[in-house]
Design goal:
Number of helices: 4
Largest sheet: 4 strands, antiparallel
Structural class: alpha+beta
Number of strands: 4
Order of helices and strands: HEEEEHHH
Strand order of the largest sheet: 1-2-3-4
Radius of gyration: 23 Å
Distance between the termini: 38 Å
Helix content: 55-70%
Length: about 200
Amino acid sequence: MGLLKQRTRLCWLYWSMLLLAAGSFFLMLYALMWEAGNIINLPHKRIGFYNFCLWNQMDGELQCVEFKDLMDMGVGQVELVLARLCVYTVQVLCSFSPFLIMQAQCANTREAWEVTLAVLGLSAVLLAGGLGLFLFQTWVWIHLSELSGGFMALAGAQALLLLQLFAAAMYLTWLKEVPEEGSPSPEKQPPALQV
C-alpha cells in the first residue's frame, strides 16, 4: 500500500511540474513578447529591456532615449545588455523545461532529474539576476505604482520557477525512496560479501 501511495505522490508531483512549466513559459512569453519587455508601459513613460522613453515637457510627447545616450543618464550599457541576456535566456530555457521534465520522467533516473533541477535552478537565478540588475540600473525613473503587467508576469514566472525547482527537488528525494521495477526488496537482497 505504501508503494502505491508513493507512486501516486510522484505522479501528482510530475503533473504539477508540467503545469508550472507551462505557466512560467506563458508568463515569460507574455512579458517579453506581448509586452515587449516593458516593465513600465504608461502614456507618459515606457521603460523596458529595449525601450527607455520619458515624457518631454517641452514637446508634450514621449521621447525615447537612444541606447548610446543612456550612459549620460547613469544607466550602464554593459549592465543593461547583461540584464537583457539573462532574462531572454530564461525564455529559451522555459521553452525547453517541459521537455526536460518529460524526459526525466521517462528515463526515471537520478541523473536526468539532476539535469532538470540544474536547468530550473539556472533559470531561476538568471531571471532574478537579470530583473534585479535591470531594476538597479533604472531605479531612479521607476516608481512601484507604475510597474505594469509585464513586471507582474516576470515576477509570477519567477515564483513559478521557484515552485518548479522545489517540486523537482522533492521528486528527486522521493525518487530515492521508491524501489525501481524489478529490483529486489531490501529483505530479499543477498547479504553483502564480507572480506
